[in-house]
Write a structure and sequence with these properties.
With about 700 residues, the protein is an alpha/beta fold. It has three domains: about 110 residues, no CATH class; about 170 residues, no CATH class; about 300 residues, TIM Barrel, CATH 3.20.20. The strands form three sheets. Strands 5, 6, 7, 8, 9, 10, 11, 12, 13, 14 and 15 form an eleven-stranded mixed beta sheet that branches. Strands 1-2 form a two-stranded antiparallel sheet. Helix 15 links the parallel strand 5 and strand 6. The longest helix has about 35 residues.
């Protein structure tokens, strides 16, 4: 009796656990994986109904800012819809979505908004080309795809991500183990196989009912044309694909039912037809069939595509089984002709093997890593396989100094970030890395936290920092920054002295160096096939920089360049885990931190003060002329037109032409191509062209 009860308990638990494994694995591979999530949000944006409502919203915003354009309203609306639907917004949408995804999985609170900016500027440019006399102003217009209201939910999302990461591989294995145990405990093993199949079918049916109910509720949740379009898009792009693995899951259950019932070899259309048409002999059977018909009818009305997908998946698995059984029958018949006796169940065993293959595939799918990357740990650092390096397989066999890298000047100075008066980048450092930047140029100073998101320069660095800030930013900007800091954070700072990323005077903007290093380590851990460089303008002691890098755990990733010794290939760096190059402009970390080298022992660079595009040169500046690495400093001086300067300097013609010119004049491959506002213009395309990749 106990054995029978245990078998039934394992059947119920196994069916339920395997059913839960399907959504757990799906969510782990899609929603919680940032690149996949960003790609699918972009797919939602491209849908005709979504782009139509968002385009009309952009048009209304532009008309509100330019009322005199009412005569061009139809043109404005059609142009806005076309822009929202076009490839032009793919990059901004994916960058914004990646940042939104990162915010969801960061322990913080407050409202999160998925917003794509600068749409108005694009539409204005297109309309201006079509109707130059009536071109609208490039009003700051954005589209909001999602908003999660004021709630401390990020920690819950983060916790859920960790749970799903575990459940994605644990649930399939646990479910299979329960069903195998149930079969082994059954007195009749074949009957146990049949029951296991029914447990899987029941789990699939329950999940299918939940999906249908979810679809009905999502339709009821709509509150207007815009909400309905986005909800429908999210359902079609994010949820509906789950019907395919669910269909395979159900098909495995049907196969096991047929095999356990001894019908694997005798299944045909007549038998199925009889199941559907012959009246059940008992009232209970009639009731079950009637309820099943009602549920199926409702599902076909609410979610027809999902039901069809489920049916196709089951039919495909059954055809697979039929083919395997036919081959097994042929083998059995030929063996019998030669006088050898074969077990009558051999075709069923073959069908069971086919079902096992399908089930194993589902287990591997659910338990697989979201990004498909296979990473290991070497000397404490996460290391990749080195088959695809910095996004391109072609780069894996090239030495580090023969590859070009997108770089950002003053990477820490982010526009719109609290405390920064003159941002020189549009994305924060993690956003830059996600965008494709692989070299960060930052300045490190001593500072103290003054509260309210402000930083004050430490007393020992103040005079030097003030001189640098006045020279580079101008006395008026510095004075304005000091007035603001004194207003929002009066008095002496309370925080202890620490390292901050500042552009001279930390009062004009400061970001924690320690926190940034931890973000970089997390990014390296989740991107095992990437090589990264950090070039530090050091206004602090080298030993303090080395200590901060070590405290963040980045010393495990740090590669040690040696003068006169050839650099390894990117593939070798990735497989060794030593895929972070850290350099200082002034000092070095020897002897305690030999990996913290003086950059200008290895880097030659161009000048970095150019008033106009026409004044760009490739002349020698710092670093020996025979240094293996070449840094191209490519930005225009002046802080009153940073964005428009980037729009001029970062085009493929200007940036690409200068990079190729410097390559020819200096006789070496440009290593770091550094710009302001890396997300404006063609930096990534230029670097790819230098590397000869797509």
């Amino acid at each position: 009796m106990a054995r029978r009860v245990a078998s039934w308990v394992l059947l119920i638990v196994g069916g339920l656990v395997l059913a839960l494994a399907v959504p757990a694995g799906y969510l782990n591979r899609t929603v919680l994986d940032a690149p996949t999530f960003a790609e699918r949000v972009d797919d939602v944006r491209r849908r005709d109904d979504v782009s139509a409502v968002l385009g009309r919203e952009v048009s209304r915003q532009l008309l509100a800012a330019n009322p005199d354009l009412v005569a061009l309203a139809p043109l404005l609306e059609q142009t806005s819809i076309a822009v929202v639907r076009s490839d032009v917004l793919s990059g901004p949408v994916r960058v914004a979505t990646t940042q939104f995804h990162r915010a969801m999985t960061t322990e913080s609170s407050g409202q999160l908004v998925l917003r794509v900016a600068d749409v108005g500027a694009v539409v204005a440019g297109v309309v201006g080309a079509l109707a130059p006399q009536r071109a609208p102003q490039a009003t700051e217009v954005s589209i909001t795809l999602a908003s999660i209201g004021n709630q401390d939910f990020a920690a819950d999302v983060l916790h859920l991500a960790g749970i799903l990461d575990t459940l994605a591989w644990l649930l399939p294995l646990l479910g299979v183990a329960c069903l195998v145990g149930a079969v082994l405990l059954a007195r009749d093993r074949w009957n146990g196989v049949r029951r296991a199949g029914w447990a899987i079918v029941a789990g699939a049916a329950g999940l299918a009912v939940a999906l249908v109910a979810g679809r009905a509720l999502s339709r009821a949740a709509g509150s207007g044309e815009r909400a309905d379009a986005i909800i429908d898009g999210v359902w079609d792009v994010f949820v509906r694909p789950i019907w395919w693995p669910l269909g395979l899951f159900a098909a495995v259950g049907v196969l096991l039912v047929m095999i356990g019932s001894g019908r694997g070899a005798g299944w045909n259309a007549d038998r199925v037809r009889s199941w559907l048409t012959v009246q059940p002999a008992t009232p209970g059977g009639v009731a079950v069939r009637a309820c099943a018909a009602i549920v199926l009818g409702a599902a076909l009305i609410v979610e027809p595509a999902g039901v069809v997908t489920l049916a196709v998946s089951v039919a495909g698995a059954l055809l697979l089984c039929a083919g395997v059984v036919a081959l097994a029958r042929l083998a059995t018949r030929r063996s019998g002709e030669s006088g050898q006796q074969r077990p009558s169940r051999r075709p069923l065993v073959a069908a069971a093997a086919a079902g096992a293959v399908v089930l194993a595939g589902l287990v591997v799918w659910a338990a697989g890593t979201p990004t498909g990357e296979v990473a290991g740990v070497v000397n404490g650092a996460v290391a990749g396989e080195g088959n695809v390096c910095n996004g391109h397989a072609e780069l894996c066999d090239r030495p580090f100094d023969e590859v070009s890298y997108a770089a950002t000047h003053n990477s820490m100075a982010v526009a719109g970030k609290p405390g920064w008066f003159l941002g020189e980048q549009g994305l924060d450092i993690v956003g830059q890395l996600d965008f494709g930047v692989r070299a960060l140029l930052v300045d490190v100073w001593y500072g103290r936290d003054a509260g309210n998101g402000r930083v004050r320069t430490s007393a020992r660095s103040y005079d030097e920092a003030l001189a640098v800030a006045n020279e580079e930013l101008g006395p008026e900007i510095v004075a304005s920054a000091l007035r603001v800091v004194n207003a929002v954070a009066p008095g002496e700072p309370q925080g202890a002295e620490a390292l901050f990323l500042c552009h001279g005077l930390c009062e004009t903007g400061g970001t924690s160096f320690d926190a940034t290093l931890r973000q970089i380590r997390t990014w390296l851990e989740t991107h095992p096939d990437e090589v990264l460089s950090v070039f530090i303008e050091d206004h602090v002691d080298a030993v303090d920089v080395a200590g901060a890098v070590t405290a963040a755990g980045l010393d495990a990733y740090a590669f040690t360049p040696v003068q006169g010794k050839a650099f390894p290939t990117l593939g070798e760096m990735i497989r060794s885990g030593k895929r972070l190059v850290v350099m200082l402009e002034a000092g070095d970390g020897r002897p305690g931190a030999p990996w913290l080298v003086n950059g200008f022992e290895f880097v030659q660079e161009t000048p970095y003060t150019f008033p106009t595009v026409g004044s760009f040169t490739c002349d020698e500046n710092r670093g020996p002329s025979d240094a293996p690495l070449l840094q191209i400093n490519h930005w225009l001086s002046g802080f009153t037109s940073l964005v428009s300067n980037a729009q001029l300097a970062n085009t493929a013609d200007v940036l690409g032409g200068r990079a190729e010119q410097c390559r020819d004049e200096r006789g070496t491959q440009p290593t770091f191509v550094a710009v302001n506002y890396a997300d404006i213009g063609d930096l990534i395309a230029v670097v790819n062209r230098l590397n000869g990749v797509g």
